[in-house]
Specification:
- The structure is a homodimer.
- By secondary structure, chain A is mainly alpha-helical.
- Chain A has a single domain, classed as Winged helix-like DNA-binding domain superfamily/Winged helix DNA-binding domain (Arc Repressor Mutant, subunit A), CATH 1.10.10.
- The first copy, chain A, contains four helices and two strands.
- In chain A, strands 1-2 form a two-stranded antiparallel sheet.
- The radius of gyration of chain A is 17 Å and the shape is elongated.
- The N and C termini of chain A lie far apart (about 45 Å).
- Chains A and B meet through helix 4 of A and helix 4 of B.
- The structure holds a DNA duplex.
DNA sequence: GCGATCCCATACCGTTTCGGTATGGGGCGG
DNA sequence: CCGCCCCATACCGAAACGGTATGGGATCGC
């Protein structure tokens, strides 16, 4: 499991469509399909139901989505905690 | 930034020693040094102080360590949320 | 029913990343 | 001065990634 795979999974879950998710992620569709499939294999459980109209989250996928977002949020916080502090004379309120 | 890098960072931070951390992670020392350095480059800030005895966390590294552990914990939870439930007749107490 | 269309999945290829071995450079202790 | 213990760099083969081309299945219009 990689952070990229989690981002990919979230995008597909939200779009319910591999093609649109690929556009949003700026990669092409086949690698994205592969990542999703490999993630499912690694987790040992399918996350999506493949329908003629696209992808729909299974209950397992719904649960995983919550945790995936939590991971990505934690990564964002980790990045932010290192950002240089804004200048003392904050332009926001003063 | 990758999950592997976060694991590597935590191990080096805990061991304060690249060589021991490498043993613990079952990889060799040079790739581990590279990962740490590349993580620092990506974050734009050094995380460790290099001493003749090993590596010591800088204040920035201490802050980042907290967040790195949070990310890895969230990943663990994500994995766990998919595990098959234990059988109803729990063997723990019977 | 047939062809066009829209999905996702697979095959193949070039590039990049990763991990391992060998080696360099610097500080500390005998 | 010499050996030892650190981390850093150089180089190489293996694995993973992303892109293009293509296949297989289902739906819609005719």
């Amino acid at each position: 499991m990689s952070l990229a795979q989690l981002e990919y999974f979230v995008a597909v879950a939200e779009e319910e469509h591999v093609g649109r998710a690929a556009l949003r992620l700026h990669i092409s569709q086949p690698p994205l399909s592969r990542h999703i499939r490999r993630l499912e294999e690694e987790l040992g459980a399918p996350l999506f139901e493949r329908t003629p109209r696209g992808m729909r989250l299974l209950p397992t996928g719904e649960r995983f989505l919550t945790h995936a977002r939590r991971v990505l949020a934690a990564v964002d916080e980790a990045r932010r905690c290192l950002e240089p502090e804004p200048p003392p004379d904050a332009p926001s309120a003063t």
